[in-house]
Design a protein that fits this description.
CATH topology: Rossmann fold
Strand content: 5-15%
Strand order of the largest sheet: 3-2-1-4-5-6-7
CATH superfamily: NAD(P)-binding Rossmann-like Domain
Order of helices and strands: EHEHEHEHEHEHHHE
CATH class: Alpha Beta
Radius of gyration: 17 Å
Bound molecules: nicotinamide-adenine-dinucleotide
Helix content: 40-55%
Number of helices: 8
CATH architecture: 3-Layer(aba) Sandwich
Number of strands: 7
Largest sheet: 7 strands, parallel
Length: 252
């Protein structure tokens, strides 16, 4: 039982991992023995250094998840460098806000594309690589916004709801290939995406009033859930949407 949470000899690909939740997951996986392919549209050298500092190996790649070709190249690079792919964390994501009635079509399109369509494309592209290894894990980063609606965030809410259903659909279809697919639904974590909101007193008060734990989280607090879903510990968990939100969505 002592290797229940081990990722030794596993190769993990994490998208959107220049910082924030993706970086924390990449470093957490490295501490548990996985080799990591770190990708983002931004520079990922800091995450690569942190993975190496955690005692593992990493390569850093510039990848825009809205390009199916770049996604394919990312998995090929993982195979070329580390011999294959075992775990994919679809983490890259963006937020656009505004009232539904006047939200620009471009905002809708880009959020659905980056947050949802890219996860489907990445799943299709990683499928042959996971099959070659006899199976694997896909962890799709959704949000509690996929379960309940944040105000004036319609494309984000819709994209994250889509991620949960995408995960269930893939879990259903690919269990026969020993590929387990799950979603994670974080509450509010301090990252570049949320820093501006968290600096507002009103937002802090809203968190205190709604989250039973009366605080936001730091990225390291998501790592345990991701390791569970990536490791032997999660060997019978499939099609689940794991909420990590300090209890926000447990009450009315
Ligand atoms: N921080 C939170 O409270 C929170 C809550 C729920 C869900 N999430 C989700 O967690 C994931 C990570 O977000 P975060 O909070 O770490 O924010 P973040 O902004 O720090 O990280 C998102 C990363 O995705 C990258 N990215 C954006 N567009 C990309 C593209 N087209 N191709 C490749 N990379 C791209 C960004 O460069 C960035 O590094 C997102 O999917 C987000 O929706 C975050």
């Amino acid at each position: 039982m002592d290797d229940l949470f081990s990722l030794k000899d596993k190769v993990a690909v994490v998208t959107g991992a220049s910082g924030g939740l993706g970086q924390a997951i990449a470093v957490g996986f490295a501490r548990h023995g996985a080799k990591i392919v770190v990708s983002d549209v931004k520079d990922v050298s800091e995450t690569v250094k942190k993975v190496e500092g955690a005692g593992s190996e990493a390569i850093g790649l510039k990848v825009d998840v809205s390009s199916k070709d770049e996604l394919k190249g990312m998995f090929q690079a993982a195979e070329d460098e580390f011999g294959g792919v075992d775990i994919l964390v679809n983490n890259a994501g963006i937020l656009r806000t505004g009232p539904a009635e006047s939200l620009p079509k471009e905002d809708w399109d880009v959020v659905i594309n980056v947050n949802l369509t890219s996860q489907f494309n990445a799943a299709q592209e990683v499928f042959p690589f996971l099959k070659k290894r006899g199976g694997g894990r896909i962890i799709n980063v959704a949000s509690i916004a996929g379960l309940l609606a944040f105000n004036q965030a319609i494309p984000y809410n819709a994209s994250k709801g889509g991620v949960i259903q995408l995960s269930r659909s893939l879990a259903f279809e690919w269990a026969q290939h020993n590929i387990l697919v799950n979603a994670i639904c974080p509450g509010i974590f301090l990252t570049d995406m949320t820093q501006g909101m968290l600096e507002q007193e009103g937002f802090q008060q809203m968190i205190k009033g709604n989250v039973p734990m009366a605080r936001h989280a730091v990225p390291e607090e998501l790592v345990g859930a991701a390791i569970y879903l990536a490791s032997k510990a999660g060997s019978y968990t499939n099609g689940h949407a794991m909420v990590v939100d300090g209890g926000w969505t447990c009450h009315l």
